[in-house]
Write the structure tokens for this entry.
Amino acid sequence: MKLLRIAAVCLIDDAGRLLLVRKRATRAFMLPGGKIEAEETPLAALRRELQEELQLSLDEAALTPLGRFRAPAANEADTEIDAQIYRARLPHPVSPAAELEELRWHPRDTAASADLAPLLQLHVLPALRHPTPA
């Protein structure tokens, strides 16, 4: 099984909703973010991906760690992801760019739907609902 290291973020709007994205030619919605290159830190990779995918520039101080989780990859067979997840307030509206085809808002207290990536269903949504004390 292949292992991919990724960094992603829970972008929360003023209404408390979670921003989800879907890449072209896929069906699963996931968090914005992407693969960590060999020379990158998770935060550097996340900031690069946010700029590419949403034309969003966030300062590192705006990103709070949520946790590190492993789950089956949503769009790649025989692949697991090792994900460093952050959370941040979305400072302004965004539009999909690069390989993103669609954005969707997910109320955090809504049950997971079948079109959500395993990482969201198994780890992120439960962590957002019941954060562990620091």
Observations:
- The chain has a mean pLDDT of 93.
